[in-house]
Fold each of these.
Amino acid sequence: MNRQASLPRRPLTIGELLDAAAGLVRRRAIWLLTAAAALAALEQAVLHPLRVASGVDLIDGFQSGFWETFGGLWVSTAIGFGFEAFIITMLGPWAGQIAAADLTGTWARPRFRFAVLLTAPVAGIATAVGAFLGPLWVLGYTLFGLSGAVIGVERRGPFGALGRAVSLAFPAAMRVTGARLLGYLAWLLLRLGFTVGVLSLFEYLPVGQIGVFWVLTIGFVVANAAAYAFLAALDAAALIEVRFRTEGLDIWLARAERHAPLTAGSLAGR
């Protein structure tokens, strides 16, 4: 069977895993990017009033001085981290279904999985609390965030998906955690570089405050949408890849397709 797949059926290097995630996004870009853009716009609609109330101005700096608004900055940043984890988890079922279809050489329209309505808030709250406490952001982000991809690939319920995500986050499968953190930090640096570059550019352009606000907001939505879609696809790819390494999923699929055509649901029962 000739498969033009984004996700090869074998254990992957970290570089190949990142390439596979990018390939999954390209395969169904319209689905992932549209949903990611809608959620990223919602994120800005929530965070902007919070920043204003806290006196944190991304354009003019800190309205009341750094230390006077440090608490507001800390809280709004922690909530922002939580929102990001929530969005990535929400996109996980779509990314997981796309990955499952890619792996089995089938096609299916991604469907919404209601189980994520429970797991995504858990992932978001855990990440926000961890970010508020400082270095515990790492634990919050890695503990439950994979649950969205689990729902899409393995079709588990909310509690089963949360338990599966936790089991994959611990040392026995630190490869998943490492891949997720690497992907997140890479996109974080890209987005920070974008923000600094745009803010610097405004010093040379005659753009008013309203124009600057809308350019930044739209830029944030576009950059974040690309990041969230990729990170959700990376979650799905990392989940499948670790199953190749620890469960022999690639061998099982090769044997199973000799007897019957594979479907995306084949991964759910395995």
Amino acid sequence: MKICRVSLAVAIAVLGLSAAVHPAADPRPGVDWPSFRGIRGAGIAEGFPTATTWDVPAGTGVRWKVAVEGLGHSSPVIWGNRLCITTAISGQKDAGLKTGLYGNITSVEDDTPHTWKLLCYDKTNGKALLDKTILTGVPKVKRHTKSTHANSTIATDGTRLVVMLGSEGLYAFDMSGKQLWMQDFGVLDSGYFLAPRAQWAFASSPVIHDGVVVIQADVQKNSFLAAFDLATGKKLWRTPRQDVPTWSTPTIHQVGGQTQILVNGWKHTGAYDFKTGKEIWKLNGGGDIPVPVPIVGQGLVFITNAHGPAGAPVFAVRETATGDISLPAGQTTNAHVAWSVPRDGAYMVSPVLYQDLLYVCRNNGTFSVFNPKTGERVHQARLGTGTSAFTASIIAADGKLYFTTEEGDVHVLKAGTFEVLATNPIGGIGMATPAVSEGVLYFRTSKELIAIK
């Protein structure tokens, strides 16, 4: 009997070790939202009905809401019933966050010690599950008046949480909040390349695929794309990038038997081999402060950006592209670029490809809808009065699209017909991209986390 108990204990230990080291299961569409804009950055969650109307200030349609200390634009990530975000708490009572359509490039002057936290909640009721202090100190770079020191969204595979804090480092935790490893990259200065003193803070989010963490760090000096072992933090490869600061997040995509990393850029939009970091294709030109995430579908990679004198393009690149596919001046297509348009691109808002239509929204609320195969613009309209700014990215679910203004109004559109079904308040500044899980919409304002059903 004693031997049996010992054997049983050993078996349990072996099983536990096996579960700890084996890769997690794939995220479940409609349930898990594992990184910025969900699975593969697509911004889509299907399979469950989602809300059309609500009113957070009035308490209508609210499942739960909780106060969140500090500032952060990191979007909620969800695995199972666990929802997690990060926040940065300033030593100033009013850290300052300025919304609106304006072009001020100056940084916020705040050299007080900050506390960075990892916060997790039960997605069903908002109960706090984890309040983990990651570090405390004075930020190594400044931030923009629309930015925070916790911009980057967490990535998770259900066994680990990967947190990118820019100049404050890259961290991995288990789901209970135990720190597993940390990578220090030194100062990652994300600021305006034409005025380097204007620091704006890091914003690119990590992504996880097949037990590997991928980081895009386009900064003032020594930009790079890098891959790290999720279990140990060991660097697998690091590829230099010749680009100015960008704020986009990579997208993972399979082409045939090859896994690719897709990145937005100004001097270097492109694809890299996931295993080696070797460049596959390259495209230059467009907006000089790229932010939107690359999205894929129908054999195409859709890239958009919009800032500066170089235009506001939308590119549709064939997923099989190789080499330098840059377009000469005045040319809109070639063997690898299926189509492009020069002036309908987005500055801040990531697009969405939903029900065979591509939706692209400018930061003033003007949105265009394209036939993704041909590039024909089938619709264009403006949300609101044109005086509201849009920073949060579009998400889609249940035949609807959700567009969030910085002032905290969410425009709900019917997919395909483009009818505005409702405009709903969330009761606070809405600059973080929402998440969706099992039909519940999760919004993060500057002060609260809110579940809408």
